[in-house]
Each structure stands twice: as C-alpha cells, then as structure tokens.
Amino acid sequence: MYQIIDGKKVANEIQENIRQEVNKLSQERKKIPHIAAILAGNDGASETYVNNKIKAAEKTGFQSTLIRLHEQTTEKQLIEEVEKLNQNQDIDGFIVQLPLPKHINEQKIIETIHPSKDIDGFHPINLGRMLLNLPCYVSATPYGIIELLKYYQIETTGKHCVVIGRSHIVGSPISILMAKNNPVGNATVTLCHSKTKNLKHYTLQADILICATGSPHFITAEMVKYETVVIDVGTTRIKSKESKSGHKLIGDVKFDEVAPKCSYITPVPGGVGPMTIASLLKNTLLAAKKEIYK
Amino acid sequence: MYQIIDGKKVANEIQENIRQEVNKLSQERKKIPHIAAILAGNDGASETYVNNKIKAAEKTGFQSTLIRLHEQTTEKQLIEEVEKLNQNQDIDGFIVQLPLPKHINEQKIIETIHPSKDIDGFHPINLGRMLLNLPCYVSATPYGIIELLKYYQIETTGKHCVVIGRSHIVGSPISILMAKNNPVGNATVTLCHSKTKNLKHYTLQADILICATGSPHFITAEMVKYETVVIDVGTTRIKSKESKSGHKLIGDVKFDEVAPKCSYITPVPGGVGPMTIASLLKNTLLAAKKEIYK
C-alpha cells in the first residue's frame, strides 16, 4: 500500500516550528524576522500568491511589508525600490514577485537583489553556491522537495533519481541537489527534458521520480516501476465546475493509476505546493538569524 | 574503426585563431588582451602549470603578468593583490593558481575575484550564470570538452550522456552543460559518483561517457557499449622510467581495450588536457572584448 506524502501537514509543522522560534525571539526582546515583497502590476494570480505569502508570514509572527507598484513602473524605479530594501537594515529578506511587466528585464532585477536578502534563491550567487554545496538560499520548490524526503525519511543515497524538466526554478536545481554529498542527496541523478528520447526507458529505472513538466497527467502507470517514490511538481490550473474557485489544479502524474505502484507519492494539490511558502519563511528566518551570510 | 579525438590539434587551432585575432587587434592599434596569474608558494606542479599558461598566452600575443608570492603570504595580503588586479584596468582577466597554501581560505579568495575578470570561471556568479544558461566564463575543462564535441560535430541532442564524478570543476559543471538547450547540449544526462550503486548499469547505457574520477584505468571494455563516445578527463600522474620527465599520465579509461568499442575516444595524454589552456586563453579574449560582462 502506498503512502501519501502530506505536504500540507509537513508545511504546517515547519510553520509551527518557525512560529515558536519567532515567539521565543519576541519574548527575549530580540528582533523578529521581517519579510518584504514587491508586487508590480495587477496580475491576478501574482496578487493571490503574494497575499498568501504575506498572510503566512504574519501567521508565523513575522513582520511584513508589501510594496505595490503600478503596471507602468519603469525598470529604473523598480531597481530603486530593490536598492532601498537592500539598504533597509530592518528588512531581513525580500522577494520581487514574478512575472514582472514585460518592459522590465527580470534577470537584471534579480541580480540587483543583495544575495544575503535573496530569500527566493534566484540570484546567480545563490545558485552558484548551491552548486558548490556552500550555505545558500535554495529556492522554494527544490527546498520543499528536500524537506519532504527528509520528513518521510526516504532513503536517497545510491538510489536512481530521475528528474523530468530542466527549468531554472525546479528541474535543474533539484537535479543538482539530489546528487550532492548531503544526507538527502547522494543519489545517481538523471535529468530528462523535452529533447529526451524514449523517456519511458528512464522513468522505468527511477527509484525516485520527480516530475516538473507542467504537462497534466503526463506520467502514466506503465512509465513507473513498482515501489517508486513519486514527487509531482506539476500544478496546471484548469477550469472546473466542481470547485468554488471555478478551477482546479492538475499534476503531471495520473495519480489514480500511478499511486498503486508507488511506495510514496505526493498528491496535487496538497503535496509539493504547500511546501513552497514554508520554504520561503524558513529562508526568511535563516536570513534574520544571519545563518547563510554573516 | 574508432576515431581519436585529437585535443592537441584542436587546441592548436583554437590558439592559432586567437593569435590571428590578437594580431589584427595589434595592427588596428587596439588594446591587446592582458592576462595575469598569481602564484603563491612553491608547489612544483603549480609552478609548471602557471608557466605553461603564461608561455601559451605570450605565444598567442597576449600581454602577461605573473605575480609571485611566497608561501607565507597571509590571506589579507593575497586579497590585497586580488583587489589590485580587480582595479587594474589594463588587466583583462586573471587567475589565482590553486591549490593555495593551507592557511588561506580558497573559497574566500575565489569570491574576491571580480566576476568579470574570473577567467577560471570558479566564482559562484559565473557558476550560477552557467546554470541559468546566461553568458559566463565556463571553467577550462568543461569548456574544453564542449569544444571537442563541437569540433568533431558529435551529435549530443537526445543522446544519453553519462558523467562519472561530481567535482566542482569537472563533473558537476559538465553534467549541467550537457543538458542545456544549446547546440552542444540537449542530452539526457546521468550524473554518477562514488555513492552510485551498480555503475556498470549506467555506463552501459551511455552514448557519450565522460569520466572524471581520477581512478586510473577504472573504465574497462565490459563497462561500455559499442559506438560510445568516450571522453577521458583523468590524468593520474605515475612514476615511469619510460619518459624523460620520470612520470607519465594515466587516464580513467583502459584505452587499449575500450577504444575498439568506441566511435570516438580521447587519448591521455593529448585529449582533454591540451584543451584547458586553450579554454583559458579563449576566456581571456572574451574578457578583453567584454563579450560576457559589458
């Protein structure tokens, strides 16, 4: 019988641990962590994401600051806002919610964020330090996956981990982390992507299969072997009359047919998704405690 | 019949092309590239390496500066030297030869080098930008491997590339590069290392096998399939009465028995090795032309 990896439960526990730590800081009259977010423009989804992050931060006792900029904000104005946050000693870490309005160069903005406050872990220095296995901010999704594997004490050393998808924010970093000489790591890692031929040849070898393609229900039962650990990062939003919001999230994996073959599997929703906010808060706490950069 | 990948020939061609480009710059009375190297201490091998780099640089018409510091140089003194080179507008790029004396923190020194002059490509920013497929200095060995595959027009897209070894300077970066959406890239990449179980299971799948373990004659004929492309990064130095220098270089691959099964194979010496200096000179030229950082 397969076991569900309950991301909601793990995320709640992590957030509760952070809340207790913040509470203690507060009792000791120490500075409590302060997160900031910049939201430029009026993208509906972005607005929801940022609000959820800020709400979760406040729930754990963080101070939070939301900076709203209008759609027509220039790149120069945005850079000025970023630099203000870099210099503001009260702000421990901050994010610039992506995507940005099209006239703004995202990479330039990311590289303007001071690496020590880059709690999204998108700055090249943090990625480079990850590659060197040095202390760094790991971005939310890969960090969340590592935490889930740790929580369920899933053995990774010497296992064959197959990652599908080579995006900068999920597939590439998680493929790197899984191969590092760390307690959750030391796996033999195969990175597959859109140019991979005969994908099934690889997925059938996976002891741990991490899917981050964004193709709904792409992974079927015949593609996985028995006892595989399946981590489904996909969250394709489709219209649905069944839910109040009018849409539902579909993973990369055909859960109903794949799950019976698995030892562990993440559901969608409720698997990797809830971990991303917990990861961001964890990075903010690390920033406040200056555990990554002194 | 297998084809030898002749690194010496390719390196000579690259260096000759650079020499012609420098010659043209000189005729146009433009600034010619200027490389510098810092050598701290008296390690015999390091001395040879640095001298070879400087000699090759001069042969291609570069200006060069060698800064020699004694074994007892403090970390602070070395940092001052690095900062002088960072600020010296005449120096386009420089290296600090590794390993450094044990009392000096190598990572700290590497991170002191300005990324725009980091022609070794060891700064976390350059590694992070490599991961993001942005313009960057790629370190010498991975760069050399890519150039060899390009020169011999070896198809990589959709091929299974198996990398053995996860070092920061070879295995990890080449495993990343081979999977990127680039002309030499788009391979499905498996990264194996000391914790991999049943290595042969993976090597037998390799269309392209890149060995960077440093274990002499580790790869035997029974570990590779027919028509594999084998890139041998190993250069273990052993004593030998046969050579004038008193030692010879042994690769990771048992060449005599593996070569007959291959489509292409690099010899040791004369394969990847000669490419590293060519790569360093190429990075210096890119630095002088400000093609990576404006």
What can you tell me about this protein's structure?
- The structure is a homodimer of 294-residue chains.
- Chain A has 294 residues and is of the alpha/beta class.
- Chain A folds into 2 domains: 30-114, 3-Layer(aba) Sandwich (Rossmann fold), CATH 3.40.50.10860; 140-273, NAD(P)-binding Rossmann-like Domain (Rossmann fold, 3-Layer(aba) Sandwich).
- Helices cover 38% and strands 17% of the residues of chain A.
- Chain A has 10 helices and 11 strands.
- Chain A has helices spanning 7-27, 44-59, 75-87, 106-112, 124-131, 140-151, 171-179, 199-203, 255-258, 273-288; strands at residues 3-4, 34-40, 63-69, 93-96, 160-164, 188-192, 208-211, 228-232, 236-239, 247-250, 262-265.
- In chain A, the strands form 3 sheets. Chain A has a 6-stranded parallel beta sheet. In chain A, strands 3-2-4 form a 3-stranded parallel beta sheet, with helices on both faces. In chain A, strands 9-10 form a two-stranded antiparallel ribbon.
- In chain A, helix 7 (171-179) links the parallel strand 5 and strand 6 (188-192).
- In chain A, helix 1 (7-27) packs parallel to helix 10, helix 2 (44-59) crosses helix 10 and helix 6 (140-151) packs across helix 7.
- The radius of gyration of chain A is 19 Å and the shape is globular.
- Strand 6 of chain A pairs antiparallel with strand 6 of chain B, so a sheet runs across the interface.
